[in-house]
Amino acid sequence: MTDALFPRERAEVAPGAVHVPGWLGPARQRELLDACRGWARPPAGLRTVRLPGGGTMTARQMCLGRHWYPYGYARTAVDGDGAPVKPLPAWLARLARDAVRDAYGTGGSGADAPGTPGGSHTAVRDDGTYGIGDEGTYGVADSGAYDIALINYYDVDARMGMHRDSDEKSPAPVVSLSIGDTCVFRFGNTETRGRPYTDVELRSGDLMVFGGPSRLAYHGVPRIHPGTAPPGLGLTGRLNITLRVSGLD
Ligand SMILES: O=C(O)CCC(=O)C(=O)O
Ligand SMILES: [Fe+2]
């Protein structure tokens, strides 16, 4: 009921960090969920990530394109079963580009309406670069294609501590897609793990893009709200897909 009274709107959480609620429609969420179930199977499937300090991450993870481990990228699951990482499909790389366009433009057409132009104020320029207004390209202009996906699965008790996505060489924005249970996503600043930060509720289908001045901001997931996934989706817990440009050869 609250949804109907107060529709959630696109919001710039920090400069270059944009939340687009409901960007993925129900059909697109189900497609992504099905794809994730396939990628989660071995080889190089879902794994528990061990941290150098001896702890483990509570969110379990799998990767496409390149394998992320603390703290770098490899072509094989070096801290898992050692198998070659699965390729990032072209459709997922295109989805990332569309996400950047829609987050930094004004069209908000959503991923269920492919090809819908972003509107007269779209931030996609003639030379193919993006930006909010005239503030800059936020690192997209010179970047190559989106070539990495990190996919995190959170059960009810999983969290992610405040960290920066800093193992990529490209300044291109990080694209984050959420499926399943709602979470609290904490978006902070580039200096410290602490305040100031903004807590954003990410629900199934929501998009977050963070680039430009926010590309290296600390962020984390302090909490999952159990049982909040859309009833028809058939997922217990939360999946998050972050898409990145590696800038690696
Ligand atoms: O689950 C999320 O929303 C954030 C994931 C994240 O920060 C990461 O994979 O680096
Ligand atoms: Fe991150």
From TrEMBL:
Residues 106-125 are annotated as: Disordered. Fe cation binds at H163, D165, H219. Keywords: Dioxygenase, Iron, Metal-binding, Oxidoreductase. Binds 1 Fe(2+) ion per subunit. Residues 145-247 form the Fe2OG dioxygenase domain. One of its GO terms (cellular component) is cytoplasm. GO terms for molecular function: broad specificity oxidative DNA demethylase activity; ferrous iron binding; oxidative RNA demethylase activity. Pfam families: 2OG-FeII_Oxy_2. The keyword Metal-binding applies. One of its GO terms (biological process) is oxidative RNA demethylation. This is Alkylated DNA repair protein.
